[in-house]
């Protein structure tokens, strides 16, 4: 870890006082997250953004999280993303124009608007969240995906789930749906690569997106770690593929994965399938308490976009605030904000 910026960050933080809140996602580097006033998974951080009265929200996370904070924040608040290049490869796999095309194709296949609820994972643009809100749908995170599916199925017969096929498949299978109920919409094929009859028969239409970090965990990693460490608990994020989740002992959002280790008795051991910074932090924190934590894939999976938030970017953004300048503001357009807010408010009503 590079602690060269510690003094600058701490000094700026002190000068800004209560005007500024620093939110940190669990995948942030140690030298950044240690300055966070509040840490959490996507759900917890969006709640924090909705509840804070601070004038400035400095979001140490990725673009879609900062956008959601801007949508949920109060009118006088401003959201700052220390590095504008901190995106998310999964969120980039669905563009609003592609989603609109998909929706048109569903209607052309004979589905009625009220028959399908569009449900988007938090890891998507504000425009896609607004699209869902306007059509009676909502947003979910990995911690309330099941509740959001149930919410949607109380209102319609089908779900269009964007953009993470793995979270969608894992949630649907956990609810008792079978492969015959699911189809995968490929945005790079005409009509998603599906016939109108197949679309009409499906209960869950999954968008063909994935997390390039979590997709690297494989079933063979689970087998290898179990063979090497008999009795180890394998816990993974639900963005991992179905074949991995099926072999795991438990699935959970980043917050839940942490809780599983916290609540385990001394002497427990865990192999975790999620981003390496979180895994390493847990390993360090729990080793003195007699709990062993290792990464599921022994090379470790790094989210390079989360990693973009460096101590240098953070120091620079905070020092500009001290000087009265807002740099790297994330601002969602007003017309998008309204419906994105509707979809996010529905998400916050579904318990994590
Ligand atoms: P969580 O909501 O579990 O923190 O997940 C966010 C994310 O991007 C995981 O890749
Ligand atoms: Fe996006 Fe995957 Fe990084 Fe999460 S871990 S922010 S889904 S690229």
Q: What name does the CATH topology of the largest domain carry?
A: Rossmann fold
Question: Numbering strands along the chain, what is their spatial order in the largest sheet?
Answer: 2-1-3-4-14
CATH architecture of the largest domain: 3-Layer(aba) Sandwich
The helix fraction, in percent, is 40-55%
Query: What's the CATH C level of the largest domain?
Result: Alpha Beta
Anisotropy-based shape: globular
Question: Poorly predicted ranges (pLDDT <50, ≥5 residues)?
Answer: none
Domain tally:
3
- The CATH superfamily of the largest domain is known as NadA-like
What's the helix count? 15
Task: Give the number of DSSP strands.
Answer: 14
The unique ligands bound to this protein are:
1,3-dihydroxyacetonephosphate, iron/sulfur cluster
Average of the residue pLDDT scores: 97
Overall radius of gyration: 20 Å
Catalytic activity: iminosuccinate + dihydroxyacetone phosphate = quinolinate + phosphate + 2 H2O + H(+)
EC number: 2.5.1.72
Keywords: 4Fe-4S, Cytoplasm, Iron, Iron-sulfur, Metal-binding, Pyridine nucleotide biosynthesis, Transferase
GO biological process, one term: 'de novo' NAD+ biosynthetic process from L-aspartate
Model description:
Catalyzes the condensation of iminoaspartate with dihydroxyacetone phosphate to form quinolinate. Keywords: 4Fe-4S, Cytoplasm, Iron, Iron-sulfur, Metal-binding, Pyridine nucleotide biosynthesis, Transferase. Pathway: Cofactor biosynthesis; NAD(+) biosynthesis; quinolinate from iminoaspartate: step 1/1. It holds the Pfam family NadA. Its cofactor is [4Fe-4S] cluster. With 352 residues, the chain is an alpha/beta fold. The chain has three domains: 6-87 and 306-333, Rossmann fold (3-Layer(aba) Sandwich), CATH 3.40.50.10800; 91-211, Rossmann fold; 214-295, Rossmann fold. Helix content is 42%, strand content 16%. The protein has 15 helices and 14 strands. Strand 12 (269-273), helix 13 (276-286) and strand 13 (292-295) form a beta-alpha-beta unit. Helix 1 (6-16) packs parallel to helix 14 (311-322) and helix 6 packs across helix 15 (334-349). The mean pLDDT is 97. The structure holds 1,3-dihydroxyacetonephosphate (13P) and iron/sulfur cluster.
């Amino acid at each position: 870890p590079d602690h060269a910026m510690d003094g600058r960050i701490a000094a700026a933080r002190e000068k800004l006082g209560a005007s500024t809140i620093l939110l940190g996602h669990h995948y942030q580097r140690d030298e950044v997250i240690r300055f966070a006033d509040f840490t959490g998974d996507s759900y917890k951080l969006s709640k924090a953004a909705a509840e804070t009265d601070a004038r400035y929200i400095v979001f140490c996370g990725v673009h879609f999280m900062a956008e959601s904070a801007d949508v949920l924040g109060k009118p006088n608040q401003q959201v700052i993303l220390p590095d504008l290049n901190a995106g998310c490869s999964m969120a980039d796999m669905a563009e609003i124009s592609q989603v609109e095309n998909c929706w048109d194709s569903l209607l052309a296949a004979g589905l009625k608007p009220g028959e399908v609820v569009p449900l988007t994972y938090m890891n998507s643009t504000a425009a896609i969240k607004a699209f869902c809100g306007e059509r009676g749908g909502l947003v979910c995170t990995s911690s309330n995906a099941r509740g959001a599916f149930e919410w949607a199925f109380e209102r319609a017969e089908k779900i269009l789930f964007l953009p993470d096929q793995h979270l969608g498949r894992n949630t649907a299978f956990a609810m008792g749906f079978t492969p015959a109920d699911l189809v995968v919409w490929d945005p790079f094929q005409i009509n998603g690569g599906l016939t109108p009859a197949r679309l009409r028969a499906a209960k869950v239409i999954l968008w063909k997106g994935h997390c390039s970090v979590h997709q690297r965990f494989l079933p063979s990693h689970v087998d290898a770690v179990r063979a090497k460490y008999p009795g180890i608990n394998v816990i993974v994020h639900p963005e991992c593929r179905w074949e991995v989740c099926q072999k795991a002992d438990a699935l959970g959002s980043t917050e839940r994965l942490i809780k599983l280790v916290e609540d385990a008795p001394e002497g427990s051991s865990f192999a975790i399938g999620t981003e390496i910074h979180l895994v390493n932090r847990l390993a360090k924190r729990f080793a003195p308490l007699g709990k062993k934590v290792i990464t599921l894939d022994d090379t470790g999976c790094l989210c390079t976009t989360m990693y973009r938030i460096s101590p240098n970017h953070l120091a620079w953004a905070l020092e500009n605030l001290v000087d009265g300048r807002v740099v790297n503001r994330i601002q969602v357009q007003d017309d998008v904000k309204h419906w994105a807010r509707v979809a996010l408010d529905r998400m916050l009503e579904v318990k994590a």
